[in-house]
Structure formats: structure tokens, C-alpha cells
């Protein structure tokens, strides 16, 4: 493969922290990611009943916390439809921050990552403010650790009276981050909230894309429509880059995005065989680690500008190896 040059230096984004080694979206996972060399740590943001941003994969916290073991919250189990999907469980918007802080995180993928379950119950649910403070604490000696927050289900939250955009901009501005030079990317699978953010801030925005389906807010007919020449131009009008499912990415995708100035940050690179193409498996155990460095280097060779990974150290090492080949 001919190596394609990225538009900007390749960054390593710690997907929910080092979620391959610690329960995701915990200060422990983010801290280990920073120690392993992450350029950015990624919190998925949802809101509490009292409008505080916290980091959870979803507002449904049934599988990522011990809420089910708290009898005092048993009556809050409910059924909701979020982005067209039915969920039964407990939801952040029904808890105050003080109540959420009584819960403890647990591993979301215990069958694939049983070693992580030994950390169940040890860590609380972090706020965006705590994550910002962590990044700033480690931004020393010339190193800058950034954050890469995702607004989760923004149109859903707006629909229940908890709009995210202005609140997020205010919190980032209070941290001193309010322009394109800030060590921040804001990402979303939706379109209209990114367009709204574009009108509020010059912080860099990333349009997430999946290999099937469409944004929940109906901002475009499908994610596929975003990957045409016209689609990329439309995204470039409000976003700094795109975050595609890695299965969407080839050299043509990267070239077409770069042609309109969009950076490309694919997701998510994971070490377990289960998540790797068959050609990169090691052995037959789905939990065993395959040849993730080879996969990452393939995408760096395509010219991507960064990548999300659950295994920060592997990502940093793969990037270093790729640079040494140049």
C-alpha cells in the first residue's frame, strides 16, 4: 500500500479511557490512558436530573453501574424509547448527581473482558468537570492532554427538557476552552446539534458516522449520504472532521474527506480477536488478543489523522512503529 499523508499529526484517542483494561468511563480508565500516552481521553456525555454532565456510555446505566443492587432506587426502573429503541432499566436523567455518586461502575463487557470485572464496585461515575480537571492536571512539562466528548442522544435530551449544547459550551468556556486552539473535539452522531454548536463556538467539531443507519435527529437521510462528494462538502461546512466506523474507511474515503479539508478519526480499534478481521486473529479464542498493531498501522498508512482505541499503549506503540517506517 502507498502511504497516504494525513492532514494533521496522527492522534491517539483513548476510547472511554483504557476500556480494554479498566471499566469504561471511570477516572481510573482515563488516568491509565493518560499514563500510557493518550493524546485525548473520550467521555460520552449524558445529563443528570439536575443538569450535570456525567460520563456514561448511555443514559441507560443498567449495564454500566450497580444501580440494580440499590433497593432505594428499585422504583425508578422504567421503560423508555430512546432514538427509536426500547430500553428497560435506570436512566441518568432520573437521578441527581448526588444520587448517581452513590453508585459504582462495573465492566460493560464481562464475557469478553472478565479481567476487568475485578474492578467492579471500585470507581464512581465521573463528571465532566472531574475529567477536565484530570486532563489539566496531566498537562504539564509541555504535554497537553485533551478531551474528546461525545454528546449522547442530544435530541432526546432536548425533547425531555435537558438541551445540551449551550450548557456544554459554557462548561468548556469556564475551563478556558472556547476556540479552535483548545485541546477539545466535540463529537456527535447527530447533525443538528453539531450545527447548533457550530453557531455557538469555534471548538473543533467531529461528525460521527456508522456503516449503516442514519442520525437519530433526521439531519440527513443516512450516514452513507454523508460520504458522497456532496455529503462531505456539507459536513465540512460545520465540522472539522469525521469519525467513521472503521469498517467504512478505505483510501478513497480518506482522500475524499481530505479533499474538502476534513480530518478522519475512525473508531474503534480493539485488541480482542472478537473485534478483529479473521486475518488478524491469534488462535481461536474470541477473548484472546490478535494483531491489533497490524490493523492500526494499516489505517495509519491510509492517511487517517487519528483513531479511537480501547488499548492506548498498543495504539501509541503502533503509531511510533508507523513513524519509524517513514
Helix content: 25-40%
Instruction: Characterize the biggest β-sheet.
Output: 4 strands, parallel
The oligomeric state is single chain
Gyration radius from CA atoms, angstroms? 19 Å
Q: What's the N-to-C terminus distance?
A: 13 Å
Description:
- The chain is of the alpha/beta class and 326 residues long.
- It has one domain (11-57, 110-324): TIM Barrel.
- It has helices at residues 27-35, 97-100, 128-137, 154-159, 165-174, 192-198, 223-226, 229-236, 251-259, 292-302, 312-324, and strands spanning 11-15, 40-42, 44-47, 53-55, 78-82, 85-89, 146-147, 150-151, 185-188, 204-209, 241-244, 263-264, 306-309.
- The strands form 4 sheets. Strands 7-2-1-13 form a 4-stranded parallel sheet, covered by helices on one side. Strands 9-10-11-12 form a 4-stranded parallel sheet. Strands 4-3-8 form a 3-stranded mixed sheet, with no helix packed on it.
- The longest helix has 13 residues, at 312-324.
- The protein is globular and about 60 Å long.
- The two termini are 13 Å apart.
- The mean pLDDT is 97.
- Residues 10-319 form the GP-PDE domain.
- Belongs to the glycerophosphoryl diester phosphodiesterase family.
- One of its GO terms (biological process) is lipid metabolic process.
- Keywords: Glycerol metabolism, Hydrolase, Signal.
